[in-house]
Amino acid sequence: MNPLFQQMPVSIFERMSLAAAEHGAVNLGQGFPDFGWPEPLLDLAARLLREGSNQYAPSRGLPALREAICGFYAERQGLAVEPGHVTVTSGATEAIAAVLLSALATGDEAVIVAPAYDAYAPLIRQAGGRVREAALRAPDWRLDEAMLEAALSPATRLLVINNPHNPTGRLFDSEELSAAVAVARRHDLIILADEVWEEVVLCGRPFVSLAALAPERTIKVGSAGKIFSLTGWKIGWAIAPPALAGTIARAHQYLTFASPPNLQAAVAQGLARPEWLEAARADFLRARTRLAGGLEGAGYRLLPSEATYFQCVDLSGLGIAMDDMAFAEMAVREAGVAVIPLSPFYEGAAERGLVRLCFAKADATIDAGIAAMAQAR
Ligand code: GLN
């Protein structure tokens, strides 16, 4: 047996969703929305399936989807990318896996920015790489050159930057992104830019892609699930500089080979209709305001949330010394609400006492979550 897998914990998202189901708790843990998808996309996907879009797509993705992805990013982010450099994957997590498996050789190091999405470190190790961590600190979560430099060694080949950042909800500003680019250029690193939350920016500042700032070295990962609020569709992609694109496509062909053609075709049509995304953003903002107001009313201290579906809460504001894991266990069992503790997102010294709540939920769900959080304190 492979010890990497034997020692791997069950993902905190899966654990909390299972615990929510077991205890009948409101699930504000795993990040999936109750609303926000364009209805025409569902009709389109269903119709395409009935009409016979049911056999293997080309491994790299339907040409129409790869073209639509390039058109979408040209219009919204000013990117000059070509369909030939896009690999469509079964969700962004598979894209991240394909990138890490193809970009890292045994012994290469990759830097992640903690609190880091939980897939990066295990996938770096599966690729034979070693994990180095730069740790952001609450409540500002600011990224800077010194912290990235300190995490580097001569064996570092790749830097993973997730922006907007999950689980903190930060949108890094141009100074922080420039710091990442400067470090990557100085040390000739590949940047894996996990930008799946690019369309869930709720602070009014513009989103800037690392692929625009450093196109020569950035592999951009995107997600139709996040763009269209359809997380179960599991359609993602990786867009790479020409020298890396073919290798990523080959890693992908022996992970999943291809993704459902009807969903790919529907996503292609959706990407041509960015106006469909406006309503969802307004609804997410309303939902965030509702959850934040309720939590503050219940006495919780909140951290800033600029993007993503997530609001972080500082438990130390309650005046009780409670570890985030212990709080999450208690909240789901006794108070009836599932939240995500932040400490599992660190390899090294973790921030304790912070939990993440998903606000992309119907009003009734948010209200039930607020009531349960009031019980939990
Ligand atoms: N991205 C989701 C979140 O942050 C989780 C995805 C998953 O469970 N694989 O909640």
In short:
This protein has 377 residues and is an alpha/beta fold. Helices cover 42% and strands 15% of the residues.
Approximately what portion of the residues adopt beta-strand conformation?
Answer: 5-15%
Question: Class by helix and strand content?
Answer: alpha/beta
How many DSSP helices?
Answer: 15
Task: State the share of residues found in helices, binned by percent.
Answer: 40-55%
Protein name: Aminotransferase
Pfam families: Aminotran_1_2
Keywords: Aminotransferase, Pyridoxal phosphate, Transferase
Cofactor: pyridoxal 5'-phosphate
Account of the protein in words:
This protein has helices spanning 3-6, 12-23, 39-50, 63-77, 92-103, 120-126, 145-151, 174-186, 210-213, 224-227, 242-253, 261-271, 278-297, 324-335, 363-376, and strands at 26-27, 86-89, 109-114, 130-135, 156-162, 190-194, 218-223, 236-239, 301-302, 310-314, 337-338, 340-341, 354-358. By secondary structure, the protein is of the alpha/beta class. It folds into two domains: 3-37 and 277-376, Aspartate Aminotransferase, domain 1 (Alpha-Beta Complex), CATH 3.90.1150.10; 39-274, Type I PLP-dependent aspartate aminotransferase-like (Major domain) (Aspartate Aminotransferase, domain 2), CATH 3.40.640. The strands form three sheets. Strands 2-8-7-6-5-3-4 form a seven-stranded mixed beta sheet, sandwiched between helices. The chain has a four-stranded antiparallel beta sheet with strand order 9-10-13-12. A two-stranded parallel ribbon has the order 1-11. Helix 13 (278-297) runs parallel beside helix 15 (363-376). The mean pLDDT is 96. Bound molecules: glutamine (GLN). This is Aminotransferase. Pfam families: Aminotran_1_2. One of its GO terms (molecular function) is transaminase activity. It comes from Sphingomonas swuensis.
